[in-house]
Every structure is written in structure tokens, then in C-alpha cells.
Design a protein that fits this description.
The complex is a heterodimer of chains A (329) and B (156).
Chain A (H helix, E strand, L loop, with lengths): L6 E4 L3 H8 L4 E4 L5 H6 L7 E4 L8 E4 L2 E5 L4 H5 L2 H6 L1 H8 L4 H6 L2 H6 L5 H4 L40 H8 L3 E6 L2 E6 H4 L18 E8 L8 E6 L10 E10 L2 E10 L6 E2 L1 H7 L6 H12 L10 H18 L3
Parallel strand pairs in A: 1-3, 2-3
Antiparallel strand pairs in A: 4-5, 5-8, 6-7, 6-8, 9-10, 10-11, 11-12
Helix pairs in contact in A: 5-9, 11-12, 12-13
Chain B lengths: L6 E7 L2 E7 L5 H8 L18 E4 L2 E4 L12 E3 L12 H8 L9 H13 L5 H7 L10 H12 L2
Helix pairs in contact in B: 2-5, 3-5
Classes of the chains: A alpha+beta (329), B alpha+beta (156).
Chain lengths: 329, 156
């Protein structure tokens, strides 16, 4: 193993975590499932890890109109929480489709949002990658790019975001609470992430010391009867998405009153399909409406040499997800 | 943390209290194998993919290769050495033998620990067992027999 060793400190409190995490060379660790992979691969070399795993942020609490998921809640605990299953099954489904049983027992909600791309060029220290080593070039652009972005990529980076949970949370309009050196702030999950542009090394809008403390979902229980997470992958389980779709509808009097669609595996961040959503509202949940929504979903796709198949796959996945949620109640 | 940067951990390992000093970047897998001398837990990929290092930490199955040892101070750890005895095998071990659920045996400790944890989750059907065991690879290809062994113990 080539990775240099790091120091370890346990955060004594939330404010201590922010102070310690803000020091140059620090990285937060909780479940460790992504950080240790990145460290062993030589992708990330923290001087010091700040263990936040024992901070009191693991609770899932629901109150009328709101679900709050502590950032340190383990994925497996979130997925089997009765209020998550009952009122936000999309979240439970997205988690169930993520990783393996062992990893879900370790990985936290905050870590799932902060995990880094699975792009093979990023994960191999010997290959060029602007996200890992700014200025070294993007190996994927002219290389093996079957798994890369159709939307939102740049000349510098075409990596996709790997989180299933983030796609589901984006569809539900969830927000995250952040504790930083300037205090507390709230951000939509959709606004957590950045497009690569010319600075692909920055995945998110967080700065040093910023700690995600919770995910907040204002009650999306109205979507519970009609929501689904469809994940298309190269094997049936324990694999990242080639394409995924989080779909949720509210149907009133036989007409779609509200639609939420976000897709994964096709962009550097969870990709909300606002035009597809708008195309559904006011229409009957039928094949024609779904086809129209799916046509909007692929509009503007910019396939690379090896991922052109994902355009048609995305179109069909959107249709199938809508068929799943659009049937008779 | 002590003066030389090592960290003192208290663990309960297979029911017995153990004290061990670890480096900040040691994984639980390396500590269990190299310092505590229990080599039943296997190091396959060391990247969280293969599941050969599966252990139970406070009753939950985890991948020891992705677990930072320092984070587990105070934890109760169960490895394959803590499961069954030669005279009195765990029911899942008996089922593995009966179903020929292994060939080379390298992945078997991880399969057994993962399977024991999965049984606690009460899988509904064979599909749930297959999904639940997807974090444990068997390069000999014994998966169908592994699923059958777990299904038998689950009463499916």
C-alpha cells in the first residue's frame, strides 16, 4: 500500500468537529467506506482524519409534515425506519438498491451524499484526471467513457455522481442542514453539488469544516402511494447505476397533479427533470404522457463515444418508472 | 492517543476483552489478523468488494477492510473463530457442509458471518437471500449452494 499514514482525532462535539475539520489536510470520517477506498487507492491523502462517528447525529425523527434524518444515521437503519418506509418509501428503495448489506450497515447518510465519483480514471492514481489532479487532463473524455455523463459534463470532466440516495432526495426536494464556521445554514440537496466546469476538483459547495448535520424532507407523504426508484445496472445487486430514475406522482381525479423526476448515472450530480415534470402535470397518467416526459428527459443529451446507449436506456427507464407509479391506485 | 501516535483500544473479541494499540490508519481487518492473531477473517480485495473480511461489530455485519480500527474502541467483535466449535458447529456451518457451499473455502468465513447476520433480518425468499449475500463473492462459484444453505436454516 502506497498511501501515507494519517493522524486520527475524534471530534468531541459538533463545534469541535467544525474546528478540526476546517484545518488544512483534515477529512471527516464516519463509516469510512468511501474514504478508506480513496485513501488506499492513493486518490485522497488526508494528514488527519476527524472521526465524527460518535456525534449525536444518528436519529431519524418525524414530526407532522417533516422527516429529519441525522447525517450519521446508518443507511440500513434509515431504510428500515417505519416512517421512512411508510411515508417516504422512495428513500428506503434507493437505499435498498445501494451497495451491499455490510456497507449499508457502515455507511452514513452524510457520507452517501459526499461519496465521490466511481470514474475509473479518478479512482486510479496512475491515470489522468482533472478531478483528482487538476490540470492532468480528463482520461475519460477520449477514453473508456461507457459509464460517463450525458448531461452537465465539461471538457475538464465527464464523471457521474454515484449516489442513489441523492437522486431520491433530489426528487423529493429534500434539504440538508450544514454546520460551518459561520453557523448553521440550509441548502437544497440539488444545490449541494456543482457542475464540473473548469473546477471539477470541487464536487460540492461545501467548504472546509462544513459538516452536514441532517437531511430534512418536508413531508412528501403525498407521494408515498406512487413513488419508485428504478436502478439499471450491469449486475442485479451491489453495483452502481448505469441509469437510475426516482419517480413520484400525485394523481387527483385521474389527472397528474404533481410529478417529481430525478435521474442518476447520467450527470455529475443528481439530475432533476423539470421539463419532464412539467410535461406530466395536468395530463392523465397514460402512455402518451409518459412518452412525452421521456422525450424531454433525453433532450440535450451529449453522448460520448461509448455511452450513446444510455440515451435510449434513459428514455425507456423513465417510461418504465412512470408506468410503475402511474397505474391504477 | 499515546505519545507515539498509537491509539489504545479496548475490544471485546469473540466474548473476551482484549486491549490493543493500533496505528491511526490501521483497519480493523489488519488489527484482527496481524495484531490479535485471528486469521480466519480473510483479506481478499481489501477494497470493500469481496466480503471475505466480513465480521460482526456490535451484532452488525461489516467489512473489516473498510473499518478504521480507531473508530471501533469499545466495540464487541465477532469473527469466524467465535462461531461454533468443532464439536458443536453453528447451524449455518452444518448447512454449509451439507450443501457443499464451498470449494476452496477462502470466502467461507465471510459468507458464514454475513449469512448469520442476514438470517437475523429474516429474508422472505431466495431472491432476498441472493440480494442480501451480494456483498460476498465466491470465485469458485458456490453461490447457489450458499443460498441453499442459508435458505435451509431460514426455513425457506
Amino acid at each position: 500500500m502506497s498511501a501515507p499514514a494519517f493522524d486520527y482525532a475524534r471530534a468531541a462535539s459538533l463545534s469541535d468537529a467544525v474546528i478540526q475539520g476546517g484545518r488544512p489536510g483534515s477529512a471527516f470520517v464516519a463509516g469510512g467506506t468511501d474514504l478508506l477506498q480513496l485513501w488506499k487507492a492513493g486518490v485522497q491523502a488526508p494528514e488527519r482524519v476527524v472521526d465524527i462517528g460518535r456525534l449525536p447525529l444518528a436519529e431519524v425523527t418525524s414530526s407532522p409534515g417533516r422527516l429529519s434524518i441525522g447525517a450519521l444515521a446508518r443507511l440500513s437503519d434509515v431504510a428500515r425506519h417505519p416512517d421512512v418506509i411508510g411515508r417516504h418509501p422512495l428513500v428506503a428503495q434507493a437505499i435498498a438498491a445501494s451497495a451491499s448489506g455490510q456497507v449499508r450497515n457502515m455507511a452514513t447518510v452524510g457520507g452517501a451524499l459526499m461519496q465521490r465519483t466511481r470514474c475509473a480514471y479518478f479512482r486510479d492514481e496512475h491515470l489522468p484526471c482533472n478531478k483528482r489532479a487538476p490540470g492532468s487532463g480528463c482520461g475519460a473524455l477520449a477514453g473508456e467513457n461507457r459509464g460517463h455523463a450525458l448531461f452537465g459534463g465539461s471538457e475538464a470532466c465527464v464523471a457521474t455522481h454515484p449516489s442513489d440516495l441523492a437522486v431520491a432526495l433530489t426528487a423529493l426536494g429534500a434539504e440538508i442542514d450544514i454546520l460551518g464556521t459561520d453557523g448553521v445554514r440550509r441548502l437544497a440537496v440539488a444545490d449541494l453539488y456543482r457542475l464540473p466546469g473548469i473546477t471539477p476538483e470541487r464536487d460540492t459547495n461545501l467548504v472546509a469544516g462544513d459538516l452536514i448535520t441532517a437531511v430534512e424532507i418536508s413531508d412528501a407523504g403525498r407521494f408515498a402511494p406512487r413513488s419508485t426508484y428504478l436502478k439499471i445496472r450491469d449486475r442485479a445487486s451491489f453495483e452502481f447505476a448505469v441509469v437510475s430514475v426516482a419517480a413520484a406522482l400525485r394523481v387527483e381525479g385521474g389527472v397528474i397533479a404533481e410529478a417529481r423526476l430525478a435521474v442518476g448515472g447520467v450527470a455529475p450530480l443528481p439530475w432533476r427533470l423539470a421539463n419532464s415534470e412539467a410535461a406530466l402535470v395536468g395530463r392523465r397518467p397514460d402512455a402518451e404522457a409518459f412518452a412525452a416526459a421521456a422525450a424531454f428527459a433525453v433532450e440535450g443529451a451529449r453522448p460520448l463515444a461509448h455511452n450513446g446507449f444510455k440515451v435510449e436506456l434513459l428514455r425507456r427507464a423513465v417510461v418504465r418508472a412512470l408506468q410503475t407509479v402511474g397505474g391504477p391506485a | 492517543m499515546s505519545f507515539d501516535g498509537r491509539i489504545a483500544l479496548s475490544l471485546t473479541l469473540n466474548g473476551r476483552p482484549r486491549e490493543v494499540d493500533v496505528a491511526p490508519s490501521d483497519t480493523l481487518l489488519d488489527v484482527i489478523r496481524d495484531q490479535l492473531g485471528l486469521t480466519g477473517t480473510k483479506k481478499g480485495c481489501d477494497m470493500g468488494s469481496c466480503g471475505a473480511c466480513t465480521i460482526l461489530a456490535d451484532g452488525r455485519r461489516i467489512k473489516a477492510c473498510l473499518a478504521l480500527a480507531a473508530s471501533y474502541d469499545g466495540a464487541s467483535i465477532t469473527t469466524i473463530e467465535g462461531i461454533g466449535t468443532l464439536e458443536n458447529l453453528h447451524p449455518l456451518q452444518v448447512a454449509f457442509v451439507r450443501h457443499d457451499a464451498l470449494q476452496c473455502g477462502y470466502c467461507t468465513p465471510g459468507q458464514i458471518l454475513s449469512g448469520i447476520a442476514l438470517l437475523e433480518e429474516e429474508p422472505r425468499d431466495l431472491a432476498a437471500i441472493r440480494e442480501g449475500m451480494s456483498g460476498n463473492l465466491c470465485r469458485c462459484g458456490a453461490h447457489p449452494n450458499i443460498v441453499a444453505a442459508i435458505a435451509e436454516v431460514a426455513g425457506l
